[in-house]
Design goal:
One of its GO terms (cellular component) is cytosol. The protein is of the alpha/beta class.
């Protein structure tokens, strides 16, 4: 399934929703509305947005099953924050997710599952470790050791540059984002091992990871499997980080898990 297939699969018109987070920042999302009480919330990855192919395809597939899905842009991401992105912000994004879940709860909707891809996978796990009000979490290709991967993205001399300048800007395509000492330290001090130990034992966690992930090694998925007690691991053979040629396998794995959840809540 490619992104165009995901878009065309949406049976209902998507509703644009704006939600204010606890910092009075605007979170913009699209609700795939089916009329179900349940709303599955989807969280994108680093420097991505709600229109990422994984987000669109998974949302369309959930909608096709008769369950509403909401995909949104974290603060600092998406078109309205084109020049406001800061590196890091894992806990800030977990708080964004909190605001989204509270929004639907206030509307008498139920969020039975939260799903995140890449950095979003870490965010949904952090959320579960902090708030303990979600019973089902899907982690797609999240990173277990947040100390890794920084040098590959920012250059191996990133700490030296921060010591000299206090911050530096990174050009990423057509946009530029800022890296500060505070945001680097926030990432370095975010311990996914300790966070996963705090996830409730009755919270079901599904981790999906591509065997050929070029960004985050598949070994990270096995580390999550070793530490999270109520955990299921699915390795998609041959898949890269974005499941470029394996969207259908990714979607079917996610839907199989979600079906076991939403049946219980209907």
């Amino acid at each position: 399934m490619d992104s165009s297939q995901g878009t065309s699969a949406c049976a209902e018109e998507q509703q644009r929703i704006e939600i204010l987070n606890s910092h009075n920042e605007k979170l913009v999302g699209l609700l795939h509305e089916t009329g179900s009480t349940e709303v599955v919330v989807l969280c994108h990855g680093f420097r991505s947005n709600k229109n990422d192919a994984v987000m669109k395809n998974v949302a369309a597939a959930i909608e096709k099953e008769g369950v509403s899905a909401f995909r949104f842009d974290f603060s600092g991401n998406g078109l309205i924050y084109l020049h406001s992105f800061y590196f890091g912000n894992y806990n800030h994004e977990a708080d964004d997710l909190r605001s989204v879940i509270q929004h639907f709860s206030n509307m008498n909707r139920v969020v039975p599952v939260i799903l995140g891809h890449s950095k979003g996978g870490d965010v949904v796990l952090l959320y579960a470790s902090k708030y303990h009000d979600i019973s089902n979490v899907i982690n797609l290709s999240g990173r277990y050791d947040l100390k890794r991967g920084i040098g590959e993205r920012l250059g191996e001399d990133f700490l030296e540059r921060l010591e000299q300048q206090g911050f530096f800007d990174v050009k990423d395509g057509r946009s530029v984002y800022r890296v500060t000492a505070d945001t680097i330290m926030e990432r370095l001090n975010t311990d996914m091992h300790e966070a996963c130990l705090k996830i409730d034992k009755d919270c079901r966690v599904l981790t999906v990871h591509g065997s050929e992930d070029e960004i985050i090694p598949v070994e990270d998925a096995r580390e999550f499997a070793n530490i999270i007690p109520n955990h299921k691991l699915e390795i998609v053979e041959g898949a890269d980080h974005c499941y470029t040629k394996h969207q259908s396998q990714l979607v079917s794995t996610v839907i199989e898990f979600i079906k076991t959840v939403t049946v219980k809540n209907n």
